[in-house]
Automatic annotation (TrEMBL):
Database matches in SMART domains: AHS2
Listed Gene3D superfamilies: Cyclophilin-like (2.40.100.10)
Keyword annotations of the record: ATP-binding, Hydrolase, Nucleotide-binding, Transferase
Organism: Pontimicrobium aquaticum
Protein name: Biotin-dependent carboxyltransferase family protein
Record-linked InterPro entries: CT_A_B (IPR003778), Cyclophilin-like_dom_sf (IPR029000), PxpC (IPR052708)
GO molecular function annotations of the record: ATP binding; hydrolase activity; transferase activity
Carboxyltransferase domain segment(s): 23-281
Signal peptide feature range: none
Taxonomy, superkingdom: Bacteria
Amino acid sequence: MIKVIHPGFYSTIQDLGRKDFQHLGVPISGVMDVYAGKMANAILGNDENCAVLEITMLGPKLEFCCDTAIVITGANLSPSLANTIINNNTLVNVNKGEVLSFNKPINGFRVYLAVSGGFQSEIVLNSRSMYQGITKAISVKKGGVLKIQPKNHRSKAYSSIKIRTDYLNEKTISVYKGPEFKLLNNEQMDKLFNQEFTISKENNRMAYQLDELIINDLSGIITSLVLPGTVQLTPSGKLIVLMRDCQTTGGYPRVLQLSESAINTLAQKCTGNRIIFKLIS
C-alpha cells in the first residue's frame, strides 16, 4: 500500500472511465489526459485501463509501504524518489519505505502516476474513477492509504516506447464543427478561429471556461447529448469546453467538438494559458 503524507492540490484515482452509463446520466470521467494515462501503463506493461493517480498542479507526497515499480507521465513537476530526482516517462523501481514527492513545475498541469498492477480502489459501474456521488472517495486525502499490489522482483521497461511531450506546450486546439455550428454567422465564425482565447480561473475536471466573449444571438436548443470536448456557447457569449466529468446533456448550442488529442492538450492547460481553435476539414 501507499501512505498519503500530503495529497497535493487535487489528486484522484482514474482509469479510462465509465463508457456505458451515459443513458443513466452518469458522466464518463476517467483520466483527463488519456494519452499520458495510457503511456504510463504501457511503459509498465499494465493493461491500458489500470487505474492511475491523476495529480493536478501541485504534487502529493507518498510513502511506499511495499516494493513496486512506477512510471510518471504528463506534466513535469520535478518528481523525486528518496530525495533523488527521477525522470518522467521512465520505469523506476521503488523500495519499501521510500518517499515520492514533487517540486518545481516545469511544464504541463496534470501528472499521471502508474504503479505495477494499477491502483486497487473500489470498482463502481465497471470503473475505479473517482466521482462525487458515484464513489465513496472523491479525491486522495491526507493520511489516507492507497492499495496497490506488492511486486517482489525488479522490473524493466515493458517495451521501448517513443513518448510525445510536445503537446504539453501546444497552443492549437483542433476541433470539428459542432451540431449547431451552422447557426453561427460569419463574424462569429471569424472570432472563433482568428483570435486567441484565455483559460479562465473557472476550470476543472467538469469544464474549462474561456475569458473572451463571442456575441451570441442564438436561441437555446432542446436539451441534447453532450460529450467530453463539446464546446458550448452560452447566452452571455462565454465559451465552455466540457471535459471528462461533464454532464451528459445540455441546452446551450454545441458549436464545436474537440478532437481526442485536443482534449489531452487542453487538460494540460491552466488559468491564464492561451489557446487557438483550428478547424479540422
